[in-house]
């Protein structure tokens, strides 16, 4: 009795050649849909340590190769040059800024971020999703802290800040002296009146 029910079950699970073809077609479509993830647009900004700026083209080439391997596209690469940082990062005040716009499937961007995170030449990076591809070159923002011609190790801006601090201190001292003189002038008539009495 058990053998009869087992044979009946097997017969219900057997497929005709047409059903097998339909199943294969469905599985192929599902497989293709997992591989054909629509690409998205991303903007990447990363900072290269000032001691390793000569290696910047190698980093850009590495990311470009990863994008092309993922069947993506690099829309633009802008080198904004060596710029002063707002605060020290990894014992340096300057870094080279690179801006890239790419188009890759969303499942591949994590691998690119991992490479940027693990690369010791890159001290900071930011990846943001964009609505559309940016193809137009974007010049570096005008900033007071751009380093022109390279860094000779001197901090001219620190000297300027020290001079400004000294000027403020001089102004504070002048104001204090004026207040003391005004206080003496106000007290002078009272002192004269008290001497006469």
Characterise this structure.
Strands 2-3-1-4 form a 4-stranded antiparallel β-sheet, covered by helices on one side. The protein has 197 residues and is α+β, with helices and mostly antiparallel strands. The chain is 49% helix and 26% strand. The chain has helices at residues 2-13, 17-35, 56-69, 109-118, 156-196; strands at 39-49, 73-89, 92-105, 122-130. The chain is elongated and about 110 Å long. Mean pLDDT is 76; it is low at 150-156. The N and C termini lie far apart (136 Å). The longest helix is centred in the last third of the chain and has 41 residues, at 156-196. Strand 2 and strand 3 (92-105) form a beta hairpin. It is built from 5 helices and 4 strands; from the N terminus they run ααβαββαβα.
Give a nutshell description of this structure.
The chain is α+β, with helices and mostly antiparallel strands. The chain has helices at residues 2-13, 17-35, 56-69, 109-118, 156-196; strands spanning 39-49, 73-89, 92-105, 122-130.
Secondary structure elements and pairings:
Layout (H helix, E strand, L loop, with lengths): L1 H12 L3 H19 L3 E11 L6 H14 L3 E17 L2 E14 L3 H10 L3 E9 L25 H41 L1
Antiparallel strand pairs: 1-3, 1-4, 2-3
Key words describing this protein structure:
197 residues, alpha+beta, 4-stranded antiparallel beta sheet, 5 helices, 4 strands
């Amino acid at each position: 009795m058990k053998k009869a029910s087992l044979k009946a079950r097997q017969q219900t699970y057997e497929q005709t050649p047409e059903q097998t073809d339909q199943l294969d077609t469905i599985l192929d479509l599902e497989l293709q849909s997992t591989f054909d993830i629509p690409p998205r647009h991303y903007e990447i900004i990363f900072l290269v340590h000032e001691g390793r700026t000569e290696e910047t083209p190698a980093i850009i080439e590495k990311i470009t190769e990863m994008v092309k391997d993922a069947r993506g596209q690099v829309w633009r690469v802008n080198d904004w040059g060596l710029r002063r940082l707002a605060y020290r990062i990894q014992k340096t005040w300057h870094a080279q800024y690179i801006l890239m716009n790419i188009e890759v499937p969303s499942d591949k961007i994590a691998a690119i971020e991992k490479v940027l995170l693990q690369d010791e030449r890159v001290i900071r990076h930011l990846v943001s999703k964009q609505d559309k591809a940016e193809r137009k070159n974007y010049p570096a923002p005008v900033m007071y802290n751009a380093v022109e011609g390279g860094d000779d190790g001197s901090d001219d801006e620190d000297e300027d800040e020290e001079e400004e601090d000294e000027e403020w201190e001089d102004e504070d001292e002048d104001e204090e002296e004026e207040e003391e003189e005004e206080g003496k002038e106000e007290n002078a008539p009272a002192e004269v009146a008290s001497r006469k009495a």
